[in-house]
Amino acid sequence: MKRSTDTAHPVHNRRAMVRNPQSEFLQGQTVQDFLDGQEPDTKKYRSLERKLVLANEPALLLDLIGVTGESNVVLSGAYDAEDDMPPLPDGLFEFFAEHINQVPCVSSFTVTQAVLTAPACAKLQATLTAPGCELTELGFVNCRFADAHVNFVADAPTIEEFTWSHEYDQMPQALEMDRVLPALAHWRKLESAILRSLGAPLNYAAITATLLANPRITSLDLHCNTAPGSLGAAGHPSPGNPVILFEMFRTNRTGLTQLNFQVATPGNLPFAAFCMQCVTHAMAENSTLQTLELPGVALCSDAFRHNFEDSLQRNRSLTALGPRGEFSRPMRLAIEANAKRHLWFSQDFIRGALGEFMRLKGAPKEVGTEVARYLYATPYEQTYCGAIVALLCKATQAGGVQVRSAGLREAILQLMRSNCQEDCLELLNSLRPRGMGLLPADKAVVVHFATTTGRLNFLPAGYAG
Q: What are phi and psi of 332, to 5 degrees?
């Protein structure tokens, strides 16, 4: 995708840049037109990109990226994600590891079927820490380390999303992913991790350690189709036992707000059932996850689904649960109620606001707090909480307005931290017609946070002005 702010790219003598003129991948008309200096058709970018990868023409590929302003670069010789991926030609990844910053239009960089050598990783490290690096997404698909002494990137100050995916033909002695995860613990801007292991079990112990060490990670996608050989003994789970991960969720020790857990397949139903039991046990007490995707629940019995839904009866944090069609209508309504409540007020805000409201009406604040303890997503909430909050929102007393503004400020900050841009904009836009904008001091806090974290796009146009 080309950015509207990109500047004109200088025209090069492309034929002088060719390294392998006899390559079969350079003989097509589209490639020949590009070599002759014609402006490439952006609709044919992927086809040109693939041919230049297979021809091992890194300088030409860099020029193609620059002239098209492509923001999402994939070093792959495959036609699509379902196609077999040929190994990357020698030196191609190392070249881009060193020179990708020369095309600042690139924000997402994915490498497939590459051998990660020490020089290549060192060059990528230098690139990621160089001033002006624009990369925010980094991915590796079916890549392997050249030897046991190669160190992965230790610091990636601009990367917000990271993907590591590997499909094994046979069970490996060790996972390459295990050498990557410790580094992610120190990536300062990392918010999303997508981890796939097909043909080998995930190492939940290493994943959990990474999440605990880097609380900035708020979104996790796990994909696996292989059960571990052993779950370990009671009290001593093996690294491949997901109970390690979900115990962390149960005790609310992670910064995660979004989890996509795709580890259940028809080929490992007993392990799938065990995974769902881990989820059920954790979610009965978790209060941090807001989005949970469980494709594997489709493989579970109706009895299990009923038990799972029962475990969520007191959960007030989940605002999205999928696959949507796999859960009962009452469960979907409860989740929707959570979403509406989370969009407007946190439970702590309702308690504080109700306490302040009742104090203003002459009742002790403690009474308000006690009453608020019982205001959940039930018929009682519909009857009482809605009316109370409606009255509060009409409050003009200074104390009530101050509490309301402070609560909304915290709700907005939480939406920003959770990367819920759509909800954040919906909330802020809904405040204006109701005359419920933030007080100047609270607005200043929101604008400062958005500015310093690069989330000004979470605010309505002109809001920060």
A: -65, -40
220 backbone dihedrals φ, ψ, rounded to 5°: -135, 125
pLDDT in tens, 56-77: 999 999 999 999 999 999 998 8
DSSP, res 187: -
Residues 193-224 pLDDT 10s: 999 999 999 999 999 999 999 989 999 999 99
| 233 CB neighbour count, 10 Å cutoff | 8
Task: Centre a 10 Å sphere on the Cβ of residue 202 and count the other Cβ atoms it contains.
Answer: 23
Q: Which residue has the tokens 């019982």?
A: 374
Between CA 322 and CA 330, with CA 326 as vertex, the angle to 5 degrees is 90
Beta-strand pair 232-233/236-237: antiparallel
Spatial contact of 405 and 352, defined as CB atoms under 8 Å apart: no
Residues in the chain: 465
